[in-house]
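INTERNAL AUDIT FORM
Audit reference: QA-55
Scope: verify that the stored structure record matches its stored sequence.
Auditor: D.O.
Record contents follow.
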Amino acid sequence: MLRKLASPFVLLMCILCFNESLHAQGNTNAANKLYQKAMAAFENYHFEDGVQLLHTSIEKDSNYLDSYIALFQYYIDHKKNREAIQVFEKSFIKDPSYFTNLNVKYATAYASIGNYSKALSILKSQYENLPGNLKSKADELMSICDFAIQQTIDPNIQVMNAGDSINTAAPEYFPAVTVQDSLFLFMRRDGVTREDFYFSTITPAGFSNAIPLMDSINNTDKKGAPSLSSDLKTLFFAAELQEYGFGRYDIYAVLKTPTGWSEPMNVGPNVNTTYWESAPSISPDGQALYFCSNKPGGYGGIDIYVSYLDEEGSWGEAINLGPNINTKGDEQTPFIHADNHSLYFSSNGWHGFGNADLFVVRKKIDGSWTKPMNLGYPINSYDNEGSVAISSNGTEGYIASDRPDSRGGLDIYKIKLAENTKANK
């Protein structure tokens, strides 16, 4: 259900690639020995030791540039972009030609802290010096910067970590909130593949400490994307259940009973296929089920669909929401608000502040949808914003994001929307 983050091993390989492809500068053996020890520390996942060794190497010889590069790469991969910028700017002046291949990452660091003007300036000044394989990346980043610079930042937007009652060192994602704004659901990943449903009650004082959903619903490893009906009696989710499924991931429903949750029920072949279906969102009246799928016949890689409940209580043939929402990219994680009018989702196909951004569309009287509206910075950032849930008050909501203040990887953040992206109360 969750895209895997870069592992420490991937980080190590990046650093070693720099080590192998660049020739060491400076004439001190001491700096080189410290650098080699740092590489060994990274290989053994002793990252703090490795960072300290790189700093010591630079102290021994301030012209030993490979230590700067390894330190810069470490900070980039750990989203410590301000530290990465400081390291780069301290070392770049020593030999600008030596750092040519890192200028796009340098610009990306500025974009990641919201300074898109500086990122664009770097790319324009260094563009002609870039090798051909990096110019396409520079072009993409410059397009993002052009968009971001033109946007007005709404001072009413707020983003704050949901705190220790929800977030841990493990990734938390796929937030969901009930129509009553009383119950908060989300996913937590334990290890490589284990994903469990957690819930917390919402009070005026904040969140209660999150605990796993009980009963057998958490038995299977691969599941996610919870959506609870307005009467709190039916829980929709996506899972890989081979004994019940049509494909790898299907959408299921469980019913609340006096003894706990029922066995999972596949919502049927009009929704599920042999392809990948996920991220269900049930409408407040229980009559529409929004979801995403990568099945053929759409507008891009992953599209958003809707299925309506028929008179016999079965889900009807899925309908693609069309080119006003779906693009040649990926549209995912739909969330239909309690107003049954505002649909929020993520997309990497519409213009945004970076990778996947969050958007809102409104349903018109004739059933068609308005053009997507970006939720704005800093709700959206240069990184991926992949899932969203909006409270019934229409003003506040929750997103999953990997930011510098996260407890570990993806965390849940509470947001306050701009006026023009709010849902109806």
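Auditor finding: record pair retrieved intact. Residues 132-150 form the longest helix (19 residues).
Action required: none
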